[in-house]
Amino acid sequence: MRKYYEFVVEGLILLSAIASIIFVLLILIFLLKEGFMLFRTIGVFDFLFGNRWYPISEPPRFGILPLILGSLWVTLGATVIAVPLGIACAIFIGEIAPGWLREILKAGVELLAAIPSIVLGFIGLVTLVPLVKKLFGLPTGLTALSGSIMLAFMAMPTIVSIMEDALNAVPRGYREGSIAMGATQWQTIRRIVLPSASSGIVAAVMLGIGRVIGETMAVMMITGNAAVIPNSFFQPVRTMTATI
User: Fold this and answer.
1) Helical segments of the chain, H only
2) Could you state, in order of their start, the residue ranges of all structural domains in the chain?
3) 65-243 CATH
4) Structure confidence by residue, pLDDT tens digits, 134-153
C-alpha cells in the first residue's frame, strides 16, 4: 500500500512538472505566432533599431529602440544605486548590528518587500518627483533618474534579505579562525566572509536586477512614459515592460 501511495504521488508530481513545461511552451508558441505577424508589414531591423514608437499613428511606427534604451538607462541607474547600498546594509545587519537591532532591521526589510509597487509608485510620484525637479532645476521630475531611485528602493529589500542569508550561511568557524590569526573584523568580512558568500551575493544581485527589469506600474508613474531616446538620466523615458 505504501509503495502504491508513493507511486501515485511521484506520478502526480511528474505530471505537474510536465504540465507546467507544456503551458510555458504553449504561451511561447502563441506569442511567437502572433508576434511574427507584425513582420509582414515591418522589417526586423526597423523593429529593433527604429527610433519612433507610434503604434496608433498613420502609418504606425514600431521602432522599439527608445524602449530598449529606456529600460537600460533605468536598470543601470537602479543597479548602481541598489547594489552598493544593498551590500552595505546586508553586511551591517548580518555582521555588525547587535542581536536586538538585527531582528528589527530584518523585519523592516521584509516589510518593505511586501509593499505593493503601485503604492511605492504613488509615493514616488508625490514625493520623489517634485524633489528631483527642485534639486536639479528640471522642467519635470518625471525622469529616468526618478525611476532609477525608486526601483533601487524597491530592489534593495530583495538584495538585502538574500545577501544577509548568504552571509549567515558562512560557517562561524571561518570568522573565529580569521580573528584568531589577528585579523580585524573588517578584514574578516572583506577577505573571508564576502568571498565565501560570493555565490549567494551574485544570486541576490541577479534577483534584484530581475525585480528592476520586470517592474511596470511604478516605472510608468514616475519616468514620464515618453518613448524617446534618452541622452541623460534627467530626461523622461519609457521602459519595455511599461509599454507591454
Assistant:
1) 2-35, 44-49, 65-91, 99-113, 117-123, 129-136, 144-168, 172-180, 185-188, 194-196, 198-214, 217-222, 240-243
2) 1-40, 65-243
3) 1.10.3720.10
4) 988 888 888 989 999 999 98
